């Protein structure tokens, strides 16, 4: 079986939000575009399938947002969650460009739902997709296909030919497994299943995600504890394209141990558990490790600005596991996991069900209860419910665990995406180690998120990075063509 040759203007590697924004933007500027997606069609879209919202700056309330969110406030939030570990020029550029994204995304067929209240506290800052991330993806794919963008599913890029910062071609191979719909379509640039392909393009947009599903690569930074990590998103993000770019002289950016990592239900599957395994109840109770000891302030900031630190916190605990404890008054205050909480009529009984020492857990809860100061509980503000006298205080939303039954969720680190990636400029062009910008290589989404996210996370920023830099990359690639 011979090699299939494909020629196009812009090759987009990846099939998620960043890739589709790039493909649509390039096509709207007249370029011929081919998208190569490693996953089968049903699983297309990488981690975008599991998303719910995006964070964009805006000057006033809208039909789906309750108030303004200025560029400066967005910058302040990003600066705080990253602790200054961000490229200010790129971050401010992204924030400024985010203001146009809500309109642009809507123009591509994506719909938003009315603002959400409750514990997420995002009604003013974040726009939620009507139908979630999969509905958003479907809208982008419909638009891309209507514009004439070609898509190859179930096709992995196996090599990149890059000379002196200039992309020449990609080698790819269609899967021989079920679900390879692209391989059955003759005449549209598809190759038979299993056949090698040579794809020549005048510009490349790398939007193939991070390496979070590559446990061996995670171990290079984390060590053996990575064996206990769960991967919230797609199993297809193994970092092959990122590795190819770095090997070709692209300048890396970011720490390999920095990532979007949240505490998810320890009973979740190894891959693709998604949003329904995330737990948002930390602020309503306490979190203990295998020694039945608290290890961090559960009430230091609003949950959307702190939920993504808890994966790293749990990763640092013995056996990379922890337990969120709360009582009956908090049971209906948050979005539950797919799995029911573990329930008991007493703290000692709960300890037994969690395989924790009953004496140690009872002591921890008693000390916490004794340290809680009177206050007025309100999870929507920085309330005055706090502890006093503990080695690790709970600074807000502290209430005694005293109303049985008692509940617990076991949690492990849930890795969403990694921050080690390719350095880019404001035009989304990748930068080479030589100090020059690549002539025709662009990057968007997780593969370059480390430019903005040196550490930490705030809800919705990943989708902002993907949408903004995806559009910039697509437009830049089309201009180059």
From TrEMBL:
It comes from the Bacteria. Its cofactor is FAD. Residues 9-454 form the FAD-dependent oxidoreductase 2 FAD-binding domain. It comes from Roseibium aestuarii. The keyword Cell membrane does not apply. The keyword Metal-binding does not apply. Keywords: FAD, Flavoprotein, Oxidoreductase. Residues 173-193 are annotated as: Disordered. This is FAD-dependent tricarballylate dehydrogenase TcuA.
